[in-house]
Amino acid sequence: MGDVQVNRFRENRWVRRGLRAVATGFGAGRFPVAPGTAGTLVALPLWYWSGGWGVRHLFLLIAVLLVSVPAAREEMAATGSPDPGSVVIDEIAGMLLAATGIPWGVRPVLLLFLLFRVFDVLKFGPAAWLDARRGAVYVVADDLAAGVYAGLAYRGITWLTG
């Protein structure tokens, strides 16, 4: 009985459209040039709203993480691609993870945005391993690894520069 209800929910066209909208960052992933960067920009107002720390930020991060894998899976199924460029919910999740514990400000935004984009593009270490795997979990996970790298690099740079 439970499986039938889950399948009916996932087969609902409005649910599928909603998941695809979330996966593409409400259209940012369809930007013709650098959709990953456009998706990362979507995370900035969310970071501003959450302040980067506290219950609001953690609630936002958990909500984005919970919806990211089903949304990515739906976009992958719709496009037929194992890692469609239109999926940017992973960039949003990764950037929000990187910003966790970092208060909003001009300097943190510029530095963390740059660091996240560099680590997201370069993909080394565990991020490269995750990127080489197939599946929605891995599509999201490699950007979360890039978010961890960016967050650690930001903290290292601010510690060194005071």
What does this entry show, briefly?
With about 160 residues, this protein is mostly helical.
Q: How would you describe what is shown here?
A:
With 162 residues, the protein is mainly alpha-helical. Helices cover 76% and strands 0% of the residues. The chain contains eight helices and no strands. The chain has helices at 2-11, 13-23, 35-50, 54-79, 89-99, 106-122, 126-131, 136-161. Helix 2 crosses helix 4 (54-79). The longest helix is centred in the middle third of the chain and has 26 residues, at 54-79. The chain is globular. The mean pLDDT is 93.
Annotate the secondary structure layout.
Blueprint: H1 2-11, H2 13-23, H3 35-50, H4 54-79, H5 89-99, H6 106-122, H7 126-131, H8 136-161
Number of helical segments with 4 or more residues: 8
Report the uncertain regions. Answer: none
Terminal CA distance: 59 Å
Biggest pleated-sheet summary:
none
- H/E element string? HHHHHHHH
Name the helicity range. over 70%
**Content of β-strand:** under 5%
* Average of per-residue pLDDT values: 93
What descriptive keywords fit this protein?
8 helices, mainly alpha, 162 residues
